[in-house]
Specification:
By secondary structure, the protein is mainly β. The chain is built from no helices and 21 strands. Strands 3, 4, 5, 6, 7, 8, 9, 10, 11 and 12 form a ten-stranded antiparallel β-sheet that branches. The protein has an eight-stranded antiparallel β-sheet with strand order 1-2-19-16-21-15-14-13, with no helix packed on it. Strands 18-17-20 form a three-stranded antiparallel β-sheet, with no helix packed on it. It is globular, with a radius of gyration of 18 Å. The protein starts with 9 loop residues before the first strand and ends in an 8-residue tail after the last strand. The structure holds (2S)-amino(carbamoylamino)ethanoic acid and manganese (II) ion. (2S)-amino(carbamoylamino)ethanoic acid binds next to loops.
Amino acid sequence: MEISALTRSVVKHNHAVISPDGYINSRVPGWENCTVNVIINEQMGANLCQTLVTLNWNSLIGGTTKASQLFVYVICGRCRAAVGGRSEMLTTGQFVYIPIGKDYTFDKPEPGTQLLTFHKVYEKLDGYDVPPVLFGDAASVEGPTYLGDPALRLQVLLPDTLSFDMAVNIFTYDPGGHLPFVETHIMEHGLIYLQGQGVYMLDKDWYPIKKGDSIWMAPYCQQWFTAMGKEPAVYLYYKNVNRFPTTI
Ligand code: UGY
Ligand code: MN
């Protein structure tokens, strides 16, 4: 039997590892008949929110984006997404970007469908339009090697234009693949593992990580990862980008 006083989850001032064993469900107004786990939010010190939503046959997720844009990715299963006058059935690996000020609904799910959401307050840039609604599919996004290492592949899911102030990418590491150096950077991350396992170094602490786990990394949290096991390790991650770096 598992010892119930143990968990792999940790919450520190500049990073967190959230494993599913500690989930407690939230009720979110407008998101009906579903299970919501709020994994990262500003109460932690983060500047993003990340949730995991598990759907039943009768789930209905509805709302209107306000100051925050919303990115929704189907981790498994299928459901219908209606945003900005367009309605699509989304299946595993498909996603929709919902800019500020848009109504959205997600319904008609296969029971057990899981949606990952990233939320960020949108910072408009003078001279650039607010991005449009965007439907996409990770399966049709190329994954070039990362910094010349064939063991690492990076898929960039959102357009690389200054209209966007967030990036969402999928990072794939073959077993034994690792970040080429310890990253030390201003950008913040939220992420969830879609597959595989490995060891993450966060601010000089070392954590075993596997499919289903999530991580928050504050700006300047030092980070490095190596994949272990028999299959590639894959994570979906958020990063804030493209805006002036200081208020000074
Ligand atoms: O985009 C990134 O900063 C990425 N290389 N970081 C990470 O995977 N921890
Ligand atoms: Mn990074």
